[in-house]
What does this fold into?
Amino acid sequence: MKQIKEEREKNTVGLIKDNRYILIPNVSFGCFMFNDDINRYLYRKHIITRIDSYDGAFDDYYFEEDGCHIWTDDTNHKAISSIRIDNICFLNGKNIIGTSYALFKNTYGIADYEDMVYLPKVGRHKYKVFDYLSLGLQLWTWRNMITEVIASKEDD
It folds into this structure.
């Protein structure tokens, strides 16, 4: 048990030093800066998908090696508007993906908004979503565990 814990801590330290998975609220995730032109990052391996939603159309750039989806919209010259992270996301030195929402709430306080979202096309289709406007974060939880983070700049 002690060996597993030490190995997990060693891996965490390595990932934090990598900087690829560090979220700085309202600023960046890894090397991706909010409001930057996505074209600055297209040298990195990625897949582009066009998504039409009730809010309008946007492009989803999936950067597998960086563990994130970058969303842009056509109204702002392909500027990065949101970043969706569902694997590794370090905030103040802790990976918040896979941790309990209660622990997050103890550190950052009560969310500005919360809602229940149903996604019938996804296996686990009932999510509780928490918005932290000043941090530009939306936390998606399932069974009180954070499963993904959508980050954007507060004023967006």
